[in-house]
Structure formats: structure tokens, C-alpha cells
């Protein structure tokens, strides 16, 4: 009888050790799998590119003069919308979605059809296309464009399609040359 009890105890011990071995083996395999996933993530992860800070230097005298002229110009009512009758052209066709001299039935215009275009809406030549900072904007998409900019009268506006890496290169070059960056 004692032998039977010992046999049962040994069987129970072997079953316990097998269960422990089974439970330990998947844990070790799971750890190995997690380690492989972590390595794969490190390889797949894109490198983080921090933004370069733009250094806008002191403005040139020409830019200050243009800024003063801009501030002293006569203010017209802000034109919102489009000129002319709204119902005579289809906006879906680009050719007709602009102002044209009215002929015939289009001449019957009321106040509700909007304002007529006049010369008074245009600004003077000196301050036309000048940014409120006092510089004329130049669109920059690559390094060749930044080389052509005059830092006394022109400022760079980086194109929307330029990526982060090239944008950083453009900004560092502009900082070196003392070019004002608007965006």
C-alpha cells in the first residue's frame, strides 16, 4: 500500500512539473516574439525630424518704408464676393466664372447684384503685392529659389508641397543669408 501511495505522489509531482514546464515555455516564446516585434518596429519607425527655428533678422530700411506706405494708404471697403450679376454665369465653367464687361440684358443692374469693378480698388504700384511686413513675397520651393531672393526687399514664402526635410534646409539657408521667412 505504501508503494501505491508513493507511486501516486510521484505521478502527481511529474504532472505538476509538466504543467509548470508547459506554462514556462509559452512565456519564454512570447517574450522572444515581443522582442522580435520591438526590433521590427525600430526598423520600420521613421526618423523624427525636428523643425528648424526661423530667425527673422532686423528689417531693412526699404521694408520699413514700404510698411509705412502700406499703413498710410487710403482704405477702401473690403471687396467680398464677386463682381456682377450672380445668375448670368455658370460657376461650373471656369471661362464664365470671372467678370466680363456687361452687354445687353446684363446692363440692367441693381444694387443687389453687387458692385461694378473700378480703378479705385487697385493699390498704388509701389505697395502693390507687398506683404504687411513690408517685403514682397517670393514663393520658394527649392534651394535654387532661395538663392535668387534679395534680402532687403523680398521675403520667402515656402510652398505648401515642400516637405519637412527640405523646408528645414531652406530655413537654415535663409537664416544664413538673413532672408525673412513668412511662414
Give the structure's gist in a few sentences.
With 183 residues, the protein is mainly alpha-helical. It is built from 4 helices and 2 strands, in the order H-H-E-H-E-H. The protein has 3 domains: 1-45; 50-73 and 123-183, no CATH class; 79-122, no CATH class.
Descriptive notes:
The protein contains 4 helices and 2 strands, in the order ααβαβα. The mean pLDDT is 78. It has 3 domains: 1-45; 50-73 and 123-183, no CATH class; 79-122, no CATH class. The chain has a two-stranded parallel sheet with strand order 1-2. It is elongated and about 120 Å long. The relative contact order is 0.12. With 183 residues, it is mainly alpha-helical. The longest helix has 43 residues, at 2-44. Helices cover 40% and strands 5% of the residues.
Amino acid at each position: 500500500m505504501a508503494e501505491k501511495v508513493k507511486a501516486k505522489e510521484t505521478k502527481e509531482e511529474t504532472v505538476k512539473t509538466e504543467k509548470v514546464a508547459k506554462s514556462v515555455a509559452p512565456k519564454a516564446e512570447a517574450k522572444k516574439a515581443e522582442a522580435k516585434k520591438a526590433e521590427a518596429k525600430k526598423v520600420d519607425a521613421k526618423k523624427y525630424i525636428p523643425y528648424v527655428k526661423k530667425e527673422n533678422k532686423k528689417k531693412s530700411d526699404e521694408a520699413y518704408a514700404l510698411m509705412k506706405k502700406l499703413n498710410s494708404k487710403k482704405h477702401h471697403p473690403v471687396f467680398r464676393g464677386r463682381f456682377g450679376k450672380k445668375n448670368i454665369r455658370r460657376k461650373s465653367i471656369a471661362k464664365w466664372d470671372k467678370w466680363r464687361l456687361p452687354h445687353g440684358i446684363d446692363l440692367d443692374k441693381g444694387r443687389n447684384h453687387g458692385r461694378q469693378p473700378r480703378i479705385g480698388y487697385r493699390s498704388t504700384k509701389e505697395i502693390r503685392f507687398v506683404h504687411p511686413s513690408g517685403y514682397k513675397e517670393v514663393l520658394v520651393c527649392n534651394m535654387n529659389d532661395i538663392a535668387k531672393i534679395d534680402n532687403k526687399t523680398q521675403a520667402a514664402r515656402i510652398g505648401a508641397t515642400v516637405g519637412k526635410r527640405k523646408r528645414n534646409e531652406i530655413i537654415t539657408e535663409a537664416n544664413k543669408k538673413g532672408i525673412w521667412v513668412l511662414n
